[in-house]
Amino acid sequence: MQKLINLLRYLVNMRVTENEVIPVVDDTHGTERLKSADGRQVVIAYPSLRQTGETSNSYQDQLPAAIFVLEKAMAGQRTDKDELEQYLSMLATVDMILKTLRADTLGYNACPRLAGMTIKVANTVPVYKVFGSWVGWMIEIEF
Description:
- The protein is α+β, with helices and mostly antiparallel strands and 143 residues long.
- Helix content is 31%, strand content 29%.
- The strands form 2 sheets. A 5-stranded mixed β-sheet has the order 1-2-5-7-6.
- The protein is elongated, with a radius of gyration of 16 Å.
């Protein structure tokens, strides 16, 4: 359970844009939190904890989380090129998040909150009209 607490505290305090990270529980919560937001937003879905193993001595923790890099969907007369450029521009933020997570889970300079955690899987997936009218990328990550 301590790893879940540490991961949530780490993610909520991550700084990769001028805006603070927005933590949410589900789609409804995210829509409410983003309704008056503007600009590029980083939203984290609260991570969960899954334990596997037959005995307490063999438990293995799996900590899946989702991190969203989002902007409001373009309104009006947008072209395919405009939409593509919007998605491409957000990939720099996605890359920064992934580099930060890798650096903070590896080596001597690892973040103490992420002690004992490694990134098992990281998938970057485009999303459209999540949390109402937001588009961008979702990083599905498991520690």
